[in-house]
Specification:
The protein is of the alpha/beta class. Helices cover 38% and strands 22% of the residues. The protein is globular, with a radius of gyration of 25 Å.
Amino acid sequence: MISHFIDGKPTDAPAERYGDVYNPATGEVADRVAFATVEDVDAAVASAVRGARLWREASVAKRQAVMFAFREIVNARRDELAALVTAEHGKVLGDAAGEVQRGLEVIEYACGIGTLLRAGFSEGVSTNVDSYSIRQPLGVVAVISPFNFPVMVPLWFLPIAVAAGNAVVLKPSEKDPSASIKLAEWFVEAGLPEGVFNVVHGDKVAVDALLDHPDVKAVSFVGSTPIARYVYERGTAAGKRVQALGGAKNHMVVLPDADVNLAADAAVSAGFGSAGERCMAISVVVAVDPIGDELVSAISQRMAAIRTGDGSRAGCDMGPLVTGVHRDKVAGYVDAGVAAGADLVVDGRSVTPDGAEGGFWLGPTLFDRVAPEMSIYTDEIFGPVLSVVRAGSYDEAVALVNASPYGNGTAIFTNDGGAARRYQHEVEVGMIGVNVPIPVPMAYYSFGGWKASLFGDTHAHGAEGVHFFTRGKVVTSRWLDPSHGGVNLGFPTQA
C-alpha cells in the first residue's frame, strides 16, 4: 500500500478510502494508494507549518547544500526513478529517463538559489538613507501534479519552492503516486528537515482541502483546463496565489518550403511520444498546401515503423495509455472522427502490441482533412491521435492557431527566416518552436502558455518560478547621529 508522507516519514495508519494503481502494460492492479481525508491534509499542512518556521531561518548556504545533495541522489538513482514511472504510467523507459533528466535540470537551477534571490541595493537615495529590496518565502505552498509526468512536473516546482525557504505539500496523481514518495524519501536523505516536504494522495477531497486551507499560501497546479480553472477560482477566492497550467491543443504549421523529412520526423516524434499524453504534444499538423499530400504520406510511412508495447521491453517506441478508462475515451474520439467524415489514414484501434493482452493499448492514429468543427480538432484528446488540417496560406494557418482557445505550445517548420520571425511575433501562444516540435524551455527559462492553457500570470520554473514562491519587501533605512533635525510632518522627499 502506498501511504502519505508526513513529518519526514510514511504514515502507517489505515485509510478510509483507497485507489487502485495499475500496471498499464498488463492491465493488472499493481498496488493500492491511500486517499487522504480532510484530517490527513490538515496533518500534512500542520507539519509543513512547523517545517516552514524552521526552514525559512536556515541560511541560503544550508538550503543550497541540501539541494546539491538531493541533486546527487536523484542523478545517481535516475534509473530507479525512471523504472517507477514506466511501471505506473506506461511510457517507455527512454522517455521516462528523459523526464527525469528534465526534472534534474530544475534541481540544478535551484542549486543557484543564492544568486536567484539576490536583489537590489541603492545607497544614498536621500541624505544618509539607503533603500534595498529582499525576497522572502511565502510559508506553506501546495503542488498538485498530473499523471503524465509524475517526476518532471513536481520537480518544476519543488526544488525552487524548497530552495527559496518554503515548505511544500504535494498532491500527486493517484494514478502513478510512487515516484513522489521516492522523491520525499530522497529529500530527507539529502538533509531536508522534517515537515518541509510532505505528500498526500487522493482525489477531489484532498485537492479541495488544500485549496481551502488558510495556512496554504500558494498553489501550483498542472492538469486539464476545466480543473485548472476550478483550482484557480477556488484558490484565489480563498486568498491564495495560484498558478494553474491547463490543457493544450498544440499546432505544428508546416509551410510549403519546409524540409518534408524533417517535418514528418518531428510530427511523429511529437505526436506519439508518451502515447500523446503530453501537454506539449503536437496534436494538429497544419499543412499549408501544396505540401499536404507529400507530408501525410511521409508521416504515415514513419508511423508504420512505430512499435507499440510494454515500455519496459527493449525496442518498444510507444507504451500503453495510463488507464483503461482513458484508453476507451481516446478510442471514442477515433470513432467520432470517422463519423464526422475525417480521412482515417492510420487506425490505431487495430494495433498488435508487444505486450500483455490486457494492457491499455491504442496504436498511433492519423487523420487527414480534419475540419475545425470536428471534436478531434477542438478537444484535447491526450492520446496518440494526430490530426492534419489543410490550409491554403500562411495567414490561414496563423488564423487557425490563434482561433484556438488554447495557447500552450506551437511550432513552425520552414526554411524561410522571415516567415519564422513573423510567426513567432504574430502567434498567440506562450511557447514557440522554430523547426523544433516540442519547445519546452530549459529550466532557466519559464514554462507556461496563454489563454485557456494558463490561469494566473506566472509561469513555472525559471525566474518566474522564483518570483512565484517568494514575495518582495523594500526596506528604507537611515543610520545617523542623534541630531536628526526634529519633527517634520511634511511628506518625505529625497534631499
